[in-house]
TrEMBL record:
The keyword S-adenosyl-L-methionine does not apply. The keyword Acyltransferase does not apply. It comes from the Bacteria. It holds the Pfam family dCMP_cyt_deam_1. The gene is tadA_2. GO terms for molecular function: dCMP deaminase activity; zinc ion binding. One of its GO terms (biological process) is pyrimidine nucleotide metabolic process. Zn(2+) binds at residues 48, 76, 79. NCBIfam families: ComEB. Keywords: Hydrolase, Metal-binding, Zinc. It comes from Staphylococcus gallinarum. InterPro entries: APOBEC/CMP_deaminase_Zn-bd (IPR016192), CMP_dCMP_dom (IPR002125), Competence_ComEB (IPR013404), Cytidine_deaminase-like (IPR016193), dCMP_deaminase (IPR016473), dCMP_deaminase-rel (IPR015517), Deoxycytidylate_deaminase_dom (IPR035105). This is ComE operon protein 2.
Length: 132
């Protein structure tokens, strides 16, 4: 099974406060070492990148209120709900990935800004030119 590599970074007041990637629970074997533990088409060993970043903030006692999260892929429904509950106000993502209809509805209802910003050479160059 091909596993999607996802990363997430949480930023508040122009500072990175946490980062995460999809991986196993601390102390558990990693899928790249022993293969995925698949049930119903999903690896049950995996914690999503967004959750890893949010949990890192919780563990360190860092508030995510009004923060921004940058994610490689659109968050799943459960991660979307956690992002909303954590008080994050903006989501930037590079790629669509099973964008759940209810997740989109929740984001619209909550007033969270979410925007797709494709990560490719053209967009990065355009951003750098416009920034200077």
């Amino acid at each position: 099974m091909n596993v999607l590599s996802v990363g997430a970074t949480i930023v508040k007041d122009n500072r990175i406060i946490a980062g995460g990637y999809n991986g196993s629970v601390s102390g558990e074997v990693h899928c790249i070492d022993e293969g995925c533990l698949i049930q119903d088409g999903h690896c049950i060993r995996t914690i999503h990148a967004e959750m890893n970043a949010l949990l890192q903030c919780a563990k360190q006692g860092v508030s995510t209120e009004d923060a921004t999260i940058y994610v490689t892929h659109f968050p799943c429904l459960n991660c979307t709900k956690s992002i909303i509950q954590a008080g994050i106000k903006t989501i930037y993502y590079a790629e669509d990935y099973h964008n759940h209809e209810y997740a989109l509805k929740l984001l619209d209802q909550s007033g969270i800004i979410y925007k797709k910003i494709p990560f490719n050479q053209h967009h990065v160059a355009q951003y750098l030119v416009n920034k200077s």
